[in-house]
Every structure is written in C-alpha cells, then in structure tokens.
Amino acid sequence: MTNARAVVLLSGGMDSATAAAMTKARGFELYALSFRYGQRHALELEAARRVAAHLGVAHHAIVDIDLRAFGGSALTAEIAVPKDRSAEAIGSGIPVTYVPARNTIFLSFALAWAETLGVTDIVIGVNALDYSGYPDCRPEYIAAFQHLANLATRAGTELKQRFTIHTPLILLAKREIVERGAALGLDYGLTLSCYDPSEAGEACGRCDACQLRRKGFREAGLEDPGKYQTAGRGER
Q1: 174-208, pLDDT tens digit by residue?
Q2: Are 169 and 127 in contact (CB under 8 A)?
Q3: What are the φ and ψ backbone dihedral angles of 122, each rounded to 5 degrees?
Q4: Superfamily of the domain at 4-220
Q5: What confidence tens digit (pLDDT) does each residue in 105-133 have?
Q6: pTM score > 0.85 for this model?
Q7: Which whole-number Å values give the CA distances from 218 to 71, 144, 233, in the listed order?
Q8: What's the rounded Cα separation, in Å, for the pair 154 and 101?
Q9: How far separated are the first and last CA of the chain, in Å rounded?
C-alpha cells in the first residue's frame, strides 16, 4: 500500500498505541489525534506524545475540549475511580469511568480532520471483549457511526467518497492485543493505561484499566514494562 493516510485516535494507552502500530504496519501514513478533554489523568497526553514519536507519525494534533462542563464520569468529575473490582464486576454493567458520548465526540473530530485532509480511513482502538462495558466500543456502534460519516459529509455525499472506521482490536482479547503489538516492536513502556495514575505517571495497578492490561500481559507470558505505584497489586 502506498500513499495511504489514516487519522488515528491516540490516547496514549496500550489499545490505541497497538491500533496505530497495526495501521502503520499496513502501510498507512499516520495522522494522530489526541484530546485534552478535561480528564483527570492528563498524563496520558505525555504518553500519546511518546507513542506518536515512537511510531513516526506524520502529524500529531492535540485538541482542547472540556467535558468537565458536563461531568458525569470518574474521569472528568470528582467521582472516585473504582479499584480492586473482580473480573465479574468489570465485565458487567457500565462503570462510572464511562465518559458520556466520548467516542462519538472524538470520532466526530476525527471525521472533520479526515475530511479536511482528504482522508477516508479513521482508526480507533476500541475493544469489545476484554473491556469495561462501554456502549461506544461495540461493533454496532462503530457501524452506525460509519454510516453517519458517509451521510453527514460533503466527501460522502457530493464527492461519493466512502469513509471507513477501522477497529483492528475490536474482537481481540487483551492477550492478543499485547501479542500483536509486541510482534510489531511496539514499546509498551511508553504507554499509560491507568485511570488514576500518580503525579509521577505511575499506574495504580488496581483500576479496571490496569487490571485488564496486566491480565493481557500475564496471559501473553510477557512482562508489562509499565511503571506501577505498588508492585504486585492488581494482579487478578
């Protein structure tokens, strides 16, 4: 594949980094998009910058929006991040770390940038297997947004171009995600998955995101190079 470009949503976590690495391996030139959206764990943007540099993206845009105006999530409001939840609890229901309409907002920005760039490929690292119940990570949601993208843009209507929302991780277990990234030489030590890291950027090891990440590395038989506040915690 030559001269192919893709807008990739890049949070700084392991999933988005893996999706970006897989997209690069397919021959795409990457245009990475991250958000300063009022998240309490803004250290993820430092991770996103590190991953973007590691992957040699063509351009990395960081957009400011403020979802604290609405709150409603442990990531944007003064709501405690759940810790030490069981695997059963993580796999059932929608947790308070869900940010209302976040992926719809992020994909809308990605769509706007893609149309401006003349790009029809958009990549998001959502996962519908080992995840925390988010409704905007499901295949039916992605299909609906792709349909919207082709109805709501000049590119899709007047120019008859077709946008594709790529979800390379959507049906992969965390173990498989880790394996794919490792095979591509992705440095997971650059990423930060935690919902509640320390000021020094150390992951808590106990939130849902940390537990799912560590589960993936453990099942893949690989050492997690991430930095944790307390070694050994969150191992389930």
Answers
A1: 999 999 999 999 999 999 999 999 999 999 999 99
A2: yes
A3: -125, 135
A4: HUPs (3.40.50.620)
A5: 999 999 999 999 999 999 999 998 766 67
A6: yes
A7: 34, 34, 13
A8: 24
A9: 41
Q: Are 5 and 121 in contact (CB under 8 A)?
A: yes
Which one, of 114, 118, 137, 141, lies nearest residue 126 by Cα? 137
- The DSSP-derived string for the chain is --SEEEEEE--SSHHHHHHHHHHHHTTEEEEEEEEE-S-TTTTHHHHHHHHHHHHT-SEEEEEE--GGGT--STTTSS-PPP-S--HHHHTSS--TT--TTHHHHHHHHHHHHHHHHT--EEE----SSSS---GGGSHHHHHHHHHHHHHSSHHHHTS----EEE-TTTT--HHHHHHHHHHTT--GGG----SS--TT--B-S-SHHHHHHHHHHHHHT------BSSTTTT--
- How many whole angstroms separate alpha carbon 61 and alpha carbon 201? 22
Length of the chain: 236
